[in-house]
Amino acid sequence: MKLTAIFLPILAAACNTMNTVVPASTGGGPGQPGFQQVVTNGWLNSKTNVTDVREDVVNGDQKRVQVTVYSDQLTTQNFSYHFEWFTATGMRVQSATQAWQSRQIKPKESLTLQSVAPSPDATQWQLKLLDTNHPLDQ
Amino acid sequence: MNSSAATLSSLALSAIAGAFASGCGSPATYKDSRGNDLVVSLDKVNVQDFNQAADKLVQSMATSGVLANAPRKPAVLGISRVVNDTSDQFDTDQLLKRIRVALLQTGKVQVSTTVGLGGRAEDPMAKGTKDMNDFVSGKGSAVPDNLPDYTLTAKILENRASAGSTKQVTYTFQMSLTDVRSGNAVWEGNEEITKQGSKSSLGF
Question: What is the pTM of this model?
Fold first, then answer.
């Protein structure tokens, strides 16, 4: 029991890599583009599993995206996320304000993460998820 | 002999102590100022707090769609009063400039640097040049074409609480966008950032 308590965080920390979400080419309906999860961190995915992605347009011509994540964990968890935006040709659009954000998710909770494109020519997006406040990081 | 031996010993001890001390500290490194491994302070507004607040406020303003209904495009924005009501002395441009850059990037807003609060231009040289151009072209007495369509005001507040050794601080970033035609606020944003702990830490 003690060994498990010691080694599980070590194993999890060794795999503290980033998960990424991108819209899929095959859509799920109007405003629901479908999505693809690139999971390199199973532990992180268990508390930020993407269940829904929606898109619309605000302010006339700026794309907005909303990603719903679900935590299957039995304790409150922390994670951080960051949306990156790109033009149709794949060039990154830098924003003056967009930075990594931290969020807390309660057991079995679904919460939404939103971002608005920094400019009208930013039409492609990518969501990056990262584990935070890991026991070994304290 | 004894004296030189003592000097050598003290020099050796100093060298060992110096090496030990330098080995204990961590060397300064560059960090991504938008990253998630920055210092989190309980007694000041950190750079990531400004980034988070500015991001949420700009997104809130964009989502409201108010700038899509501006009387002219791009609309002209004037920066009005910005108040720092916290115990942390910082330049409010740390918040405002981020918001200005992000709004300019949308293509829907241009910020006036020649019309400012109390008649003070942010860029006196630009104002002087514009005034001269208007005078030469005969527009001197006409209504200036760079008057703002909207003005932006902001206030940053602080709320502190503690329980035992746990301290908590909440910074509230409030912002209002006023349509100068009606004189009424057409968008308002309120973002809170709360930090809790017994001491400052690294990362969030």
Answer: 0.82
